[in-house]
Specification:
CATH architecture of the largest domain in chain B: 3-Layer(aba) Sandwich
Distance between the termini of chain B: 47 Å
CATH superfamily of the largest domain in chain B: P-loop containing nucleotide triphosphate hydrolases
Shape of chain B: globular
Oligomer: heterotrimer
CATH architecture of chain C: Orthogonal Bundle
Largest sheet of chain C: none
Shape of chain C: elongated
Number of helices of chain B: 10
Number of helices of chain C: 11
CATH class of the largest domain in chain B: Alpha Beta
Structural class of chain B: alpha/beta
Number of domains of chain B: 2
Largest interface: A-C, 57 and 56 residues
Structural class of chain C: mainly alpha
Helix content of chain B: 25-40%
CATH class of chain C: Mainly Alpha
Strand content of chain B: 15-25%
Helix content of chain C: over 70%
Order of helices and strands of chain B: HEEEHEEEHHHHEHEHEEHH
CATH topology of the largest domain in chain B: Rossmann fold
CATH superfamily of chain C: MetI-like
Chains: A mainly alpha (255), B alpha/beta (267), C mainly alpha (254)
Strand content of chain C: under 5%
Order of helices and strands of chain C: HHHHHHHHHHH
């Protein structure tokens, strides 16, 4: 069983390697102009060069910083606001429909407004990223809080638990699968908006790096940046999965 | 022992009732669920409530728990009006699957009641172990409710209720969803737990045999709206026994009486 | 029901009225805010000179063209991966390596390869739309009742007909859910690309309004983009309910 899984994995890596080889072949034969498509060898060399000179490190750090601050701010605010709205029926009736109306709004449309208010600054980026990332978290929290088993609230009442204890011991853990799913969605949103803000505002980060590389037709550097963004997306999503598995171990037991 | 004294007090009937319904009427959504219900439960008494479905027996229990407030009349606990649920009254819900925290282990679920009672964390593990042993779940402390059978989950809920050190235990068809063997075992365990703790019990069930087997007194409710239709004192010797008690002539007589009552209400 | 929808309107209307009153009382002069009445006037103006309609057409064209391409690719791959476990396992690493690349990161590549205009926007939208369709249609195909596949085998249907007559109809409700999700993504990505770099459509319109220091027009665009997003979502939900009723809901989550 386990052996088969490993074999499949190896085969799958081999297939991926074949695709990279194909890419190399296309680049070597210049089927696509090297101005647009560097071979994997050149992209790799650009990655190595970027890291050894320290340039890519600082760009990567910039993007991670934007993403992390915006996402964390969105998580804290989204859970808090979502908890307040979700735990009150009155709030749900009055506020939730407005939020549902705003949900399909392409959040990037807020960028010009943010630029008008805050200029091309870090503060603007932070605002945009957290504004975009807050929606999935907040809506998931509202849903999670509204869906807490009423019986558990009765248990809490009969134990005369304080309001704070009810929130932290009953409602939050019960809503945690929803909240974590929302936070996972927001992670992607935060990465995308970080890149967009860096492109627009020229803030230090991978978004700015790929744009500059494109403008200068340094396609190897451009691909290095895109690969790094892909890795960032992958690593953060894997980290989130690990966190979910750990925090939601009780759900695995349920299945 | 204190519990023995309490039991004696209960039997002699001189003390004021621990739980008293005084002309309680409850309306929900414009419908009268319970009408003019008066009822006293003495400290240490084991009261069973039976009735056809929809007669308001669960509602009566929720009134006693303070989860509902009567539309008119009063529910008193120790001569004080019940305005909200309180820790010395523990409720065992029928749907144990919903009443346990799925994200906490068995130990964690028991711990919830200890935390609510303000027990220092250092003292909790020993108490948790003791309680789990009491309900027959030693060695299951680390399991999640979803990893346990229905009977075990209900034991766990009972353990959590015992952790409240309740004066009164309210049980809402606690064994309704369990198979017959598990059910009989749990009946005897509840009887011995209650005897040891001296708690007052109100036990709602639709199983007439169960009501007579467990109770000091059985009340049958009439439906639409809920009110008392029959009241029987159960003078069967304790400790009760699954075989001999159920064959006792008095048991059979009460069973017959209760059965006729229920049959009459269903027409 | 009606009482609840009335309550739902209290908050937004209250905010609008309060904002209008506040803006008038303080004689608001701002580069970023404008009272609701001026926003409405700007919106009407943008309709009158057709600028917002042209922009809407451009954005929707790019979004739908990208959506169509992305859906076709995603569906083809999703069905193939759903049918053949071998193929799915072999491609796993490749898919997992490409999928996490944020679509917007491809913007510079599309820019140098395709230049400004529709083509690069469509390419990016298509890339973004492939993944949800691929993942959900793969799951949909896998969850087809095995009995149906046995029927197909018993009837000795050739593979192409098997896909066309059994697999796609059986998986269609959930595939539509994927399509709905992708349509939302397509609009978001199209607007984002326009805001970031591409000089066409609603995104460029709102950026121009900001740069021209016309907060009323900028916010009018914002409101309009919100309305388009909402309308698209509502239309697709209605279509889903009409076409598949409850089946789609039980099959594919939200």
């Amino acid at each position: 069983m386990n052996r088969a899984v490993i074999l499949w994995r190896v085969a799958s890596f081999a297939v991926a390697a074949c695709f990279i080889a194909l890419w190399q072949l296309i680049a070597n034969l210049k089927l696509v102009s090297p101005v647009f498509l560097p071979g994997p060898d050149r992209a790799w060399a650009a990655l190595v060069r970027g890291f050894s000179s320290g340039d890519l490190w600082s760009k990567l750090a910039g993007t991670l910083e934007h993403m992390a601050y915006g996402w964390l701010a969105a998580s804290i605010a989204g859970i808090a606001i979502g908890a307040i709205i979700g735990s009150s029926r009155t709030m749900r009736t009055y506020v939730a429909p407005s939020l549902e109306f705003l949900r399909p709004l392409p959040v990037s449309a807020i960028i010009p407004v943010a630029i008008a208010m805050l200029g091309l600054t870090q503060a603007m980026a932070l605002f945009v990223i957290s504004f975009g990332a807050i929606w999935p978290i907040m809506l998931a929290t509202i849903h999670g809080f509204a869906a807490v088993e009423p019986r558990l609230y009765e248990v809490a009442r009969s134990l005369q638990m304080s309001r704070l204890a009810v929130i932290f011991k009953i409602a939050l853990p019960s809503a945690s699968p929803d909240i974590l799913a929302g936070m996972r969605l927001s992670l992607t949103v935060a990465l995308i908006l970080s890149v967009v803000c860096e492109i627009l505002a020229g803030l230090d980060g991978l978004g700015h790096w790929v744009l500059l590389s494109a403008r200068a037709f340094r396609s190897a550097d451009l691909f290095a940046g895109v690969i790094l963004l892909g890795v960032t997306g992958y690593v953060t999503s894997v980290a989130m999965s690990l966190a979910e598995n750990k925090l939601l171990a009780w759900q695995a037991a349920q299945r | 022992m204190a519990s023995a004294a309490k039991r004696l007090e209960a039997v002699s009937g001189t003390a004021a009732p621990q739980i008293a319904f005084e002309s309680v009427t409850l309306q929900l959504g414009g419908k009268t669920i319970i009408e003019n219900l008066s009822l006293g439960v003495r400290a240490g008494e084991f009261l069973c409530i039976v009735g056809a479905s929809g007669c308001g027996k669960t509602t009566a229990l929720r009134l006693a728990a303070g989860l509902y407030q009567p539309t008119s009349g009063k529910v008193n606990f120790d001569s004080q009006p019940m305005r909200e649920p309180r820790r010395e009254i523990a409720i065992v819900f029928q749907d144990y699957g919903k009443a346990l925290l799925p994200w906490r282990t068995a130990a964690g679920n028991v711990s919830l009641a200890l935390e609510a009672g303000g027990m220092p964390s250092a003292e909790r593990p020993a108490r948790i172990e003791e309680l789990l042993r009491t309900v027959g779940l030693p060695g299951h402390a680390g399991k999640y409710p979803s990893e346990m059978s229905g009977g075990m989950q209900q034991r766990l809920q009972i353990a959590r209720c015992l952790a409240q050190e309740p004066k009164t235990l309210l049980m809402d068809e606690p064994f309704g969803a369990l198979d017959a063997m598990t059910r009989q075992g749990l009946q005897d365990e509840v009887l011995s737990l209650v005897a040891a703790s001296g708690a007052t019990v109100i036990f709602v069930t639709h199983d007439l045999d169960e009501a007579i087997y467990l109770g000091d007194r059985v009340i049958g409710l009439l439906p639409h709206p809920g009110r008392i239709g029959i009241e029987l004192a159960v003078n069967l010797p304790r400790p009760r026994d699954q075989l001999s008690t159920r064959e006792h002539p008095e048991f059979l007589r009460l069973r017959r009486q209760l059965f006729d009552f229920i049959k009459a209400t269903e027409q | 029901m009606t009482a609840n929808s009335a309550k739902a309107l209290v908050l937004p209307l209250g905010i609008l009225v309060a904002f209008e009153v506040w803006a008038r009382a303080t004689h608001l002069q701002s580069d970023s805010l404008a009272p609701p009445s001026e926003i409405v006037m700007a919106l009407i103006g943008a309709f009158a000179d057709l600028s917002i309609l042209t922009a809407t057409r451009d954005t929707l064209f790019s979004a739908f063209a990208g959506l169509a391409i992305g859906t076709v690719i995603g569906l083809a791959l999703g069905i193939a991966f759903g049918i053949s476990d071998t193929l799915n396992r072999l491609m796993e690493v490749t898919v997992e390596a490409i999928r996490p690349i944020p679509s917007i990161a491809l913007l510079p590549i599309a820019l140098i390869a395709l230049g400004f205009g529709y083509r690069m926007e469509i390419a990016i939208v298509a890339f973004a739309c492939v993944w949800p369709v691929l993942i959900l249609s793969r799951a949909a195909v896998r969850s087809i009742e095995p009995r149906l596949m046995e029927v197909a085998r018993a009837l000795r249907l050739p593979p192409a007909q098997r896909v066309w007559k059994i697999i796609i109809p059986a998986a269609l409700p959930r595939i539509f859910v994927a399509f709905r999700l992708s349509a939302g993504i397509a609009l978001i990505v199209a607007v984002t690309v326009e805001i970031a770099i591409n000089p066409l459509g609603l995104g460029a319109g709102i950026m121009l309004a900001q740069q021209a220091l016309r907060p009323d027009l900028m916010l009018a665009y914002l409101v309009w983009i919100g309305i388009i997003g909402y309308a698209l979502n509502v239309l697709l939900v209605i279509a889903q309910n009409r076409l598949f009723g409850r089946a789609a809901l039980t099959g594919g989550g939200q």
